[in-house]
Amino acid sequence: MSGGEIANFGVVDITVINGIKWTTERSASPGYFSAIDTAVYTGCSDEIHIDGYVKKYGNKSFVFPIGSENKLRTLEISTPLLSTDAYATAWIPGDPSADLDPTAPFAGHHPVTSHSTSISSVSTVGQWDWLVGDAANLGDGTTGTGEGLIIRVSIPDMTTFADAASLRLAGWDGTKWIDLSGRPTATGNTENSLLEGIMASNISAIGIGKTYSTLPLTLESFTATAANCKVDLKWKTTGEYNTDKFIIEQSTGTTGFLEISNVPATGSLNGSNYSITVSQPAGLISYRLKMTDKDGRFTYSPVVQIRNICESSDYMQVFPNPVTSGNQDIYVRFKTSYRGKAQVMIFNSLSQQVAVKKIEVMAGENIVTANVLNLVNGSYIIRVAGADGALIGNAQKFIKQ
Questions:
Q1: What does the H/E/C string look like for the chain?
Q2: Mean pLDDT over residues 131-145, rounded?
């Protein structure tokens, strides 16, 4: 079919007519198999699909049954905004850098070496041509920029290109490939895994990109120094290409590592120096950095340890312990020189915070309660921290049974 359009107003099973190849012209003015409003195409597979362009009219979600030769490469869109919206797409195998995209507004080559800073590279296996109603090439009176639509595609085998967490849906904006996923969305990196993103306006092609598989950050040093019954933590980095923040974690030895503070990254490629002073209970305490990038990836620093030899009159205890499933509250008794706002936090055995309660602390002895009625049976850590994040007393373990 060349330059024309065959409309579907209902349900079309493309397996019914055996031996018929469902194809359209792939030129600057392609032909289309169209779906109107709630119409769908069924029976699609690697062997049977539409080899060419499919167009969708209306404000209903839709799966485009497109591909090439013996490969189905579906593209699914969420519900468009208006009944006059129209979108069309086709799978184009091959390197997008070549002159493969036939349609306006950005016809021609889309170099895989031209991409935004959040994308490290773009696959040469193929792309989906993307046409929108607002571009005036899908018929008079059609609307739709595509912005905000959830796009989900069925990908080729990407096992030699990137791990699943690194894959990103990429959109060609006329000058470069941009990240449409913004986070890990792939269900896998093997054939027919799904990859998702949110469409932006002014996109004319959709490809498969990847972000950095490891944090480009280099941690040059990380040290801990005793300072007046507290601890100075210092670290130096280089290459903060995509770094978001540094989470400071502390362990007393009887607990797992718990977050006590965090520091935003400067984003400097040439090197940054950081320091933070934290309160430390008496005894030998361990610290580490959880270095997190903007995509949610993270890696840990080496652990450093330091002993606090300062005497402390602070203490904390919890009771009853164990607490039975019939009890609503557990009591926390502690003595401190701190005065002001604080919070009681409860963590499960995976160091995940499961409950928090804001309190007001006075200097001297305090008794507060924490609700544990909805906690499942198991072991927990409870801690009290001041408004500055400093630990009041030592974290305590209790059992819910």
A1: CCCCEEEECCEEECCCCCCCCEECCCCCCCCEEEEECCCEEECCCCCCCEECCEEEECCCCEEECEEECCEECCEEECCCCCCCEEEEEEEEECCCCCCCECCCCCCECCCCCCECCCCCEECCCEEEEEEEHHHCCCCCCCECCCCCCEEEEECCCCCCCCCHHHEEEEEECCCCEEECCCCCCCCCCCCCCEEEEECCCCCCEEEEEECCCCCCCEEEEEEEEEECCEEEEEEEEECCCCEEEEEEEEECCCCCCEEEEEEECCCCCCCEEEEEEEECCCEEEEEEEEEEECCCCEEECCCEEEEECCCCCCEEEEECCCECCCCCEEEEEEEECCCEEEEEEEECCCCCEEEEEEEEECCEEEEEEEECCCCCCEEEEEEEEECCCCEEEEEEEEEEC
A2: 92
In this structure, of 127-136, 187-196, 360-369, the range with the lowest mean pLDDT score is 360-369
Whether this prediction's pTM lies above 0.85 is answered by: no
Q: Which position has the higher pLDDT, 136 or 201?
A: 201
pLDDT tens digits, one per residue of 295-354: 777 888 999 999 876 655 566 778 787 887 777 888 888 878 788 999 999 999 888 899
